[in-house]
From TrEMBL:
Pfam family, one: CHX17_C
Ranges for domain Cation/H(+) antiporter C-terminal: 594-740
Gene3D superfamilies referenced in this protein's UniProt entry, alphabetically: 1.20.1530.20
Molecular function via GO: antiporter activity
Residue intervals passing through the bilayer: 12-32, 44-67, 79-101, 121-140, 147-170, 182-201, 222-240, 303-325, 332-352, 364-386
Keywords: Ion transport, Membrane, Potassium, Potassium transport, Transit peptide, Transmembrane, Transmembrane helix, Transport
Upper taxonomic lineage: Eukaryota, Viridiplantae, Streptophyta, Embryophyta, Tracheophyta
Species of origin: Triticum urartu
Cellular compartments annotated: Membrane; Plastid, Chloroplast envelope
Domain Cation/H(+) antiporter central per the UniProt entry, residue ranges: 441-578
Function field: May function as sodium-coupled metabolite transporter across the chloroplast envelope.
Any GO BP: potassium ion transport
Protein name: Cation/H+ exchanger domain-containing protein
């Protein structure tokens, strides 16, 4: 079911509720009363409900651990305004509506305080719901996604402490001495509870995770100890009148996310808790819904009025601060919809209130139908109207080809691990930046989202516990940045600079952070590593267990980048050559020899411009091979592009005609097979091969037949050929794509 719904943006939790509803009395259970016993007997469902409740508590604790509490500090005025107005407005609107319709409210609702309870949790934008739904929509890394999560987290805090404070105040203000004592005891116990979690439970858990080695996870005994502490906090919260999830969530927020605790919880619990037990709890909530019980139109209509008023009030209240801060109307609407996401929290609360007889079967069914409709509609609407990739459009050309003479080359270098560092540094070293041809390097260390709920994009700080596994003085990010910093320090002063960043995000949305940094820093070129490398035995192997996800990230970067992109395929030839100190370019020997194969088109022109930049002030040997078809074969399908190719190559020849480091040759070939023979015979003399991706170029006889066997489309036809095992090359290859997204008229 979710495989279909996800295409239109309907969250996973809605599919799980519907799956339960299909088996319940609303659908199949109405005609086949015992169909639910296929999965469990009535007694079995009681056990599943118990285990599911425990699993939900652990799920909340895990989310608390993964949550970066710094979001509140960094959220800014917009998130605070959205949280305050988005929580207060529906409270007030539903309260006023209840006063206006007080004569129509059923006595049963008054006796069970239904509207009071409904007001308290229907007005809330639960952080867990917003976070999980944004994850389903792949919007965790988006600007609005971060804003909505910050507002939801602040709203959760504000709502919890406001209710506790108001309740205690009203009790203490009561004329009855007994109620005053209860109010004072409530305030005191709440304060002591928070203090014990912060001063006792937190230090104990920090002690348990302190000496875990880098890259390691907690042992089973330590993990069990942590879980027992969280369950103890849950039980203590229940004794104080709080919901069972409150204590574990607050404790989780007090603990550091990431490794080792967050990663351990993700690896050991997510598959079982979030993947099996919690969905069973949600499905059971759907099974309890019986739409055939909805018979009283006046009662259900009254409930619908309260729910709609709450939704509209929150929607408008969340839009107002966005519009005031000059956020576009379309994005303001998206924020209002995000803050109205509904899901697991509503299901759990509704089931609990049904067990306590606050909700009857009819009200429960009507409420769950609203959860389904609102949850599905808001998710689908956000997916339809909010596309963060649309903003990654530069207002001017950001390419190496359009770079002015003497202007610094702004490069965004992306690395996933230490394996990627050496080839990228070697590529930058091959360019040999100087004060007249400077390079500004923006380093982005890309890390998968593990042990955290919200994505992170920030400037690098040494030994940041959120970045990588702890346990040693130097983290992986430290070592990555140190390697690039060493490269900068070895260059002449004023020739290069470094500004490192750390990005922690799901692979599905990692390209958003890459494109954001590239756009903000006006990068001209993004360098990303290929997801495969050459093994010691000569075979090609993935660079990491997440190679497939890295490949998808590279493809997304190619599709949405606001500047040119280069994929570096490392085969060791570039980083394994001798140093510049041992080779004399005057004798015709160079520390790096670069070949550029030119077929034509914007990507090839960009590749040639990059190769020319590398040869500007560097002791490298550069040879450009241009392939042409025989005159009788030439079909000028795009005369404008052909003219641009001729101008670019002629300008290149005029610029380098007197430089013995650079050569330019033209080869007239009778098709792809002859071109491949030339490349095979000439490439062995070089360390680095540079080609254009040619993804949007017209089909040419030069590539006819080759494209049918392409395995990696992100490398283009020629790039895939040069890096294939059949070609047999052990040379590093740089595949270049020129900027494809620019403002109209540029």
């Amino acid at each position: 079911m979710y495989a279909v719904f996800r295409r239109v943006g309907i969250p996973l939790v809605i599919s799980q509720i519907l799956a339960g509803a299909l088996l319940g009395p609303s659908f199949l259970g109405h005609y086949l009363p015992h169909v639910g016993e296929i999965f469990a007997t009535p007694r079995g469902w009681v056990q599943i409900n118990t285990v599911g409740g425990y699993a939900f508590t652990l799920h909340i604790f895990t989310i608390g651990v993964k949550t970066d509490l710094g979001m509140i500090v960094k959220s800014g005025k917009k998130a605070i305004a959205i949280a305050v107005l988005g929580t207060a407005a529906p409270h007030l609107a539903m309260y006023v509506t209840a006063l206006a319709l007080s004569d129509r409210i059923p006595k049963q609702w008054t006796d069970t305080f239904l509207l009071t309870n409904l007001n308290s949790w229907w007005s809330l934008s639960a952080f867990i719901v917003v976070c999980c739904t944004l994850d389903d929509l792949h919007l965790l890394s988006s600007k609005l996604g971060r804003l909505a999560m910050s507002a939801a987290l602040i709203g959760d805090f504000a709502n919890t402490f406001a209710i506790a404070g108001v309740t205690s105040y009203l009790l203490q203000a009561s004329p009855e001495e007994k109620l005053q004592r209860i109010g004072f005891a409530s305030s005191l116990s709440f304060t002591i509870f928070i203090a014990l979690m912060g001063l006792v439970a937190r230090p104990v858990i920090l002690r348990l995770i302190r000496d875990v080695p880098e890259g390691g996870i907690l042992s089973e005994s330590r993990l069990v100890a942590v879980l027992l502490i969280s369950i103890t906090c849950s039980f203590a919260g229940e004794l104080l009148g709080l919901h069972a999830t409150y204590g574990p969530f607050m404790l989780g927020l007090m603990l550091p996310g990431g490794a080792p605790l967050g990663v351990t919880l993700a690896e050991r619990l997510d598959r079982l808790v979030a993947g099996v037990l919690t969905p069973l709890l949600i499905a059971q909530g759907g099974m309890r819904m019986n739409v055939h019980m909805v018979t009283d139109a006046s009662t259900c209509g009254l409930l619908e009025v309260f729910l709609v008023v709450g939704i509209l009030a929150k929607f408008v209240a969340c839009m107002v601060p966005c519009l005031y801060c000059q956020i576009p109307v379309r994005e303001s609407v998206a924020v209002g919809l995000m803050m109205n996401f509904k899901g697991i929290t509503e299901v759990v609360y509704a089931s609990a209130f049904m067990d306590s007889k606050v909700l009857d079967d009819e009200a429960y069914a009507a409420f769950m139908m609203n959860v389904l409709v609102v949850g599905a509609a808001t998710g689908a609407a956000v997916k339809y109207m909010y596309h963060p990739e649309e903003k990654y459009v530069a207002n001017q050309r950001r390419t190496v080809e359009s770079k002015k003479v003497g202007e610094e080359l702004r490069v965004l270098a992306c690395v996933h691990s230490q394996v990627d560092v050496a080839p990228v540094v070697a590529l930058l070293d091959a360019a040999s930046p100087t004060p007249t041809t400077p390079v500004s390097v923006y380093l982005l260390h890309l890390l998968p989202l593990a042990g955290l709920t919200s994505s992170v994009l920030r400037s690098f700080k040494h030994s940041d516990r959120h970045c990588v596994p702890t346990g040693s003085k130097a983290t992986e990010s430290d070592r990555v940045v140190n390697a690039f910093q060493f490269f900068v320090e070895q260059r002449q002063q004023g020739s290069s600079s470094l500004l490192p960043y750390v990005c922690i995000a799901p692979y599905a949305t990692m390209h958003n952070d890459v494109c954001t940094v590239a756009l903000d820093k006006r990068a001209m070129l993004i360098i990303v590593p290929f997801h495969k490398r050459l093994a010691i035995d000569g075979s090609v192997e993935p660079t990491s267990p997440n190679a497939g996800a890295i490949q998808d990230t590279n493809i997304n970067i190619l599709n949405y980048a606001p500047c040119s992109v280069a994929i570096l395929v490392d085969r060791g030839s570039l980083s394994g050559v001798a140093s510049t100190a041992s080779i004399d370019p005057i004798d015709g020997l160079f520390p790096h020899r670069v070949a550029m194969y030119f077929l034509g088109g914007p990507d090839d022109r960009e590749a040639m411009a990059l190769a020319a930049y590398m040869a500007e002030d560097a002791p490298i040997g550069l040879t450009v091979f241009r392939f042409l078809l025989p005159i009788e074969w030439q079909q000028r399908l795009d005369p404008e592009e052909d003219e641009l190719d001729d101008e670019a190559t002629q300008e290149f020849v005029d610029r380098w005609v007197d430089d013995n480091r650079v050569m330019y040759t033209q080869h007239t070939v009778g098709g792809s097979h002859e071109m491949v023979d030339v490349i095979r015979n000439t490439s062995v003399a070089f360390d680095l091969l540079v080609v254009g991706r040619r993804a949007d170029s017209l089909e040419s006889p030069l590539t006819a037949g080759i494209s049918d066997w392409s395995e990696h489309l992100e490398l283009g036809v020629l790039g895939d050929l040069l890096t294939s095992a059949d070609f047999g090359s052990r040379l590093s290859t740089l595949v270049v794509q020129q900027q494809t997204r620019a403002a109209a008229g540029e």
